[in-house]
Amino acid sequence: MLSYILRRIVATLPVMAIVALFVFGLLYIAPGDPAVVIAGDQASPEDVERIRQSLGLDRPFLIQFGSWVWRLMHGDLGTSIFTNLPVSTMIGQRLGPTLSLMMVTLLLTIVVAVPLGVVAAWKAGSFIDRAIMGFAVFGFSLPVFVVGYFLAYVFALQLEWLPVQGYTPLNRGFWPWLQNLILPAIALGCVYIALVARITRAAMLEVLQQDYIRTAKAKGLGQGGILFIHALKNAAVPIVTVIGIGIALLIGGAVVTESVFAIPGLGRLTIDAILRRDYPVIQGIVLLFSFVYVLVNLMIDVTYTLVDPRIRY
Amino acid sequence: MALLEVENLQTHFRTPSGINRAVDGVSFHVNEGETLAVVGESGCGKSVTSMSLMRLIPEPPGRIAGAIRFAGKDLLRMSDREMRAIRGNDISMIFQEPMTSLNPVLTVGRQIRETLMIHQGLDKQAAETHAIEMLTLVGIPEPKRRVREYPHQLSGGMRQRVMIAIALACNPKLLIADEPTTALDVTIQAQILKLMLDLKRRVGAAIILITHDLGVVAEIAERVMVMYAGRKVEEAPVAELFRSPRHPYTQGLLGAVPKLGSSLAGTTTRLAEIPGQVPDLRKPIAGCVFAGRCALATDLCRQYAPGLEEKGPGHIAACHYASKGAVAA
């Protein structure tokens, strides 16, 4: 098991290398020139050229890529063209809010979506099932920013239950921290909840047909024990998979959500960096996101072994 | 008073193409400690009958009517809660497919413990100890190691032993075994049957044995009920049934058993079969349910359904032509 995890971590290296190449290549061919942005409107073509040289942007692609990778391997993500701060420092500053948002969303999703899916499967075909699945389609179709603005309008501006926007670090107290994350997490979680609820329902429907569910019933188990212990654990593999894959959705959604709720996280940093053509920052963030994604996939595979004893590596 | 009295049991299913009368008016009883075999071919309503007794039929699309009196109380009138207290405790069940009837993601020990904790209020520790005892009782070697294992680590015969351990954990008064040996190979079949009989004697449980294996019936049953197309067509003590079957269907079933050694004796004949198929239970059947396949059927059979009549001591059959003597063969 441990050797499997180690092997998997080693196996992420080539994946990360390919991701790095793609990220670098895409930005290289993307239109826009950071030198122009930095030089400003008044700059002469000579100024722009000088800045370009100082940034090393005039060198051939492979040399630029090579030196970037060389520094990466030494743990250096580079320096922001715009703020002159190390990229790792900038990411570090913004990591807290984004991680908080994602954790709260993830938790909210699991707590809401899984029981909804279970109940929908249990009551398959009934009014409750159709209501839950109707909501799922609805939630899946709504863009994050629409839900975000709607929630902010109703619960923050009209009812004044929760703050409109902003972020409070966790070290200033749990409730102030959570307060600022509830609405963004709901907005971000909508699609995710819909997805997980649907998959849970489908997986449960299949499991509930199985012979061992009949056995559980014949043993005199109550409905709760049958659904949440005997059935859910068997349905867990597809559910865990979708929850994991959904983290990719969260990364994309976090960018929009953070803009809507003015959360100073990585999403905002990404947008700012793209607008400024701050290549090292963009590269650093994308690399980080892909690393997280690869790691999440590893966690999914490890979780399988916890829920299904037949899966062994 | 009988332990179990089933009166006019009707289990119907609503299907898109009409109501399927899977079990249509079956009555029988089981005495304490008795072994009743229910036989018939696939689709005759044996399994549906046994599932109805435990109320394991999903409703809807199923619907169970009639009366199932267990120790005098009608199970069909019980609340879900009262029914749960009976299942796995007073009445328990062993299923046909040992490979799929155990939950693959829970340990064997946990699956045995569960019934003990629900019905006998044992704590985890006591239930674990009892689970190990049960595994020993059903003849599983190294029970202390096996309780921590998962079903996929056990063979089919072992899994059926575990099922029996679960079923007998709470000393049930009635054990329903739905083709418990069908999925097992022959040597294991004999072991499992012997085990069931031993344990039955030990706990004094009555058994309803659903099977299509007449060899098994002859070996362990005391009384036999023959079902066809959702109805009871014949019932008799086991020796009586094998000696003089009255219903043409029962005769057909007995005739369809291959006789070992007949080729050595030079008396090979074509294995007898019952021509045709079980009628479509979604359509109303006029007359005798077996008339379509019966070589002896007359217009009387096709128009009027025969009632169950006493043909001998403890021997009843539903056939116009099964007289008190033997039916014309």
UniProtKB/TrEMBL annotation, chain A:
<feature type="transmembrane region" description="Helical">
    <location>
        <begin position="177"/>
        <end position="197"/>
    </location>
</feature>
<keyword id="KW-1003">Cell membrane</keyword>
<protein>
    <submittedName>
        <fullName>ABC transporter permease</fullName>
    </submittedName>
</protein>
<feature type="transmembrane region" description="Helical">
    <location>
        <begin position="281"/>
        <end position="307"/>
    </location>
</feature>
<feature type="transmembrane region" description="Helical">
    <location>
        <begin position="235"/>
        <end position="261"/>
    </location>
</feature>
<dbReference type="InterPro" id="IPR000515">
    <property type="entry name" value="MetI-like"/>
</dbReference>
<keyword id="KW-0813">Transport</keyword>
<feature type="transmembrane region" description="Helical">
    <location>
        <begin position="9"/>
        <end position="30"/>
    </location>
</feature>
<dbReference type="InterPro" id="IPR045621">
    <property type="entry name" value="BPD_transp_1_N"/>
</dbReference>
<dbReference type="Pfam" id="PF00528">
    <property type="entry name" value="BPD_transp_1"/>
</dbReference>
<feature type="transmembrane region" description="Helical">
    <location>
        <begin position="134"/>
        <end position="157"/>
    </location>
</feature>
<keyword id="KW-1133">Transmembrane helix</keyword>
<feature type="transmembrane region" description="Helical">
    <location>
        <begin position="99"/>
        <end position="122"/>
    </location>
</feature>
<keyword id="KW-0812">Transmembrane</keyword>
<dbReference type="InterPro" id="IPR035906">
    <property type="entry name" value="MetI-like_sf"/>
</dbReference>
<comment type="similarity">
    <text>Belongs to the binding-protein-dependent transport system permease family.</text>
</comment>
<dbReference type="Pfam" id="PF19300">
    <property type="entry name" value="BPD_transp_1_N"/>
</dbReference>
<feature type="domain" description="ABC transmembrane type-1">
    <location>
        <begin position="95"/>
        <end position="304"/>
    </location>
</feature>
<keyword id="KW-0472">Membrane</keyword>
UniProtKB/TrEMBL annotation, chain B:
<keyword id="KW-1003">Cell membrane</keyword>
<dbReference type="InterPro" id="IPR003593">
    <property type="entry name" value="AAA+_ATPase"/>
</dbReference>
<dbReference type="InterPro" id="IPR027417">
    <property type="entry name" value="P-loop_NTPase"/>
</dbReference>
<comment type="similarity">
    <text>Belongs to the ABC transporter superfamily.</text>
</comment>
<dbReference type="InterPro" id="IPR017871">
    <property type="entry name" value="ABC_transporter-like_CS"/>
</dbReference>
<dbReference type="InterPro" id="IPR003439">
    <property type="entry name" value="ABC_transporter-like_ATP-bd"/>
</dbReference>
<keyword id="KW-0813">Transport</keyword>
<keyword id="KW-0067">ATP-binding</keyword>
<comment type="function">
    <text>Involved in beta-(1--&gt;2)glucan export. Transmembrane domains (TMD) form a pore in the inner membrane and the ATP-binding domain (NBD) is responsible for energy generation.</text>
</comment>
<feature type="domain" description="ABC transporter">
    <location>
        <begin position="4"/>
        <end position="254"/>
    </location>
</feature>
<keyword id="KW-0472">Membrane</keyword>
<protein>
    <submittedName>
        <fullName>ABC transporter ATP-binding protein</fullName>
    </submittedName>
</protein>
<dbReference type="InterPro" id="IPR050388">
    <property type="entry name" value="ABC_Ni/Peptide_Import"/>
</dbReference>
<keyword id="KW-0547">Nucleotide-binding</keyword>
<dbReference type="Pfam" id="PF00005">
    <property type="entry name" value="ABC_tran"/>
</dbReference>
<dbReference type="GO" id="GO:0005524">
    <property type="term" value="F:ATP binding"/>
</dbReference>
<dbReference type="Pfam" id="PF08352">
    <property type="entry name" value="oligo_HPY"/>
</dbReference>
<dbReference type="InterPro" id="IPR013563">
    <property type="entry name" value="Oligopep_ABC_C"/>
</dbReference>
